[in-house]
Amino acid sequence: xxxxxxxxxxxxxxxxxxxxxWLYTTCPHRERVTIREYTIKEREEQIAxxxxxxxxDVVCFSCYIWNIQPIKTIIQLLKQHDPRLHxxxxxxxxxxxxxxxxxxxxxxxxIGEGEQSIWEYITMLEEGQPHEVAGIYTKQFxxxxxxxxxxxxxxxxxxxxxxxxxxQAMGRQYFYLETSRGCPYGCTYxxxxxxxxxxxxxxxxxxxxxxQLKDSDVKQVKLLDRTFNSNPARALKIARYMNEHCxxxxxxxxxxxETLSEELLRFFCEEADTSRFRFEIGVQSFNTKTLESxxxxxxxxxLKEVIARLKASGCIMHVDLIAGLPYEDIASFQTSFDxxxxxQASEVQLGILKxxxxxxxxxxxxxxxxxxxxxxxxxxxxxxxxxxEEMKRIHTCAHAVEKFWNSAVCRYVITVILQLHWYDSAxxxxxxxGQEYEKLPRPYQPYxxxxxxxxxxxxxxxxxxxxxxxxxxxxxxRQKPHRFTKSRISLxxxxxxxxxxxxQGIANQDTLFRYGVVDIGYDGEEGYQLVLYNRHQQYPKxxxxxxxxxxxxEMTI
Length: 557
Fold this sequence. Notes:
This protein is an alpha/beta fold.
């Protein structure tokens, strides 16, 4: 058999590609196959040189929207140095509308799931008798269809999750697990809508993997199922086992919140260890006409109820919207964002609509007057409802959400500002924060993020603003940070506060005076804060002292 390299460029080192491992597992001659993964941060020239040094005959790339550009560059470099090298590409990014790649150094394209078709194609190359292979697109044989694998057939091979090559890094990388393939929904912007039939691995197979998982070094598990709760009874059985037996792992699911069964919801809210379960919830919009136009059936009231109940129980949630969908102008999008943000999920993603190849919405691009990037990631830059300038403003807002909220750097500050009704709209707040963030030098110091708030709050009492900002600022460091505002209290007042804390038994005198920071603070009211660092550079403890200096309590912002 020809020497084959299975490779890709992952987003980060902590990621690994499950598709490559499935290909390796199903290969009839593994001794001739190598897996090598790179990251998109590595130089294309270096990657190409490394591949050439391996002296393989066939290179198979796994392609996605985030890595297609560097992979195309790598392919060009490989072909320049070795035109005889046979290049095969596969993955979601090349399964549709990718025939042009055959003029850019690619010899064959795997359309759909390639566990069977790629090895049939490579066997055909060895035999030297060209013929059509289902799922493989070439110039000679361009007529093929999207391929799907029989999951029961895949179960007959060694599972790809605990390969010897992965053992050393098990505790440092994500563990990607799929219990099903396909999606039952038909959202026209999503590539998964092309595969409406959900296929599931058998419960015996999944339970066998979970039994291996519980005793492994794995820490973070991300399920690749498009809708984990599509079969509620099955999802509950899997989740129960994870909760009861996989005690050293955390799990991340993608769910459709409004269809979450009551039994499954009660389990996560009342029985499960909420610290070990994280949910990805696609909301996309609260505009009914928008949702209908993209084939998305969504009960908004049930959705909000489920998110609120998961939030109240301490569950970690990542929720997202998509900007640029049909019938959603800037006012409607603001309403959707403010509604979603009011639910106070752990993370909020503000995504930009991407017209992915193979989706129905891309085919409707002229009807909706979409203007979009013609190269990956195919971001929409304007539509019949949003101008280019408005889309730029939404981009600015998205950056601010990521930097000030999702990172948790200024989460407390933002929460307080909205609670005090200094801004009636979270969207408006993040829009203006984003504008200030764009003005920062690169690189910037952490305190400069906090300074972004001053122009927004110029009409508020500066002393009060300082108290709110400093309350979060001090908490984000493992050792005493530099101030970014002038001191609001005297040296005498600081001593008074430190001696008060000493009398309350917070710490001994040496610790208080050496590792303590005293300043104005806010905890539902103005007062003072004591932040206590330590020599081990752990995150500090923080206490609130009232204005009268008569009470002290630990803060948990």
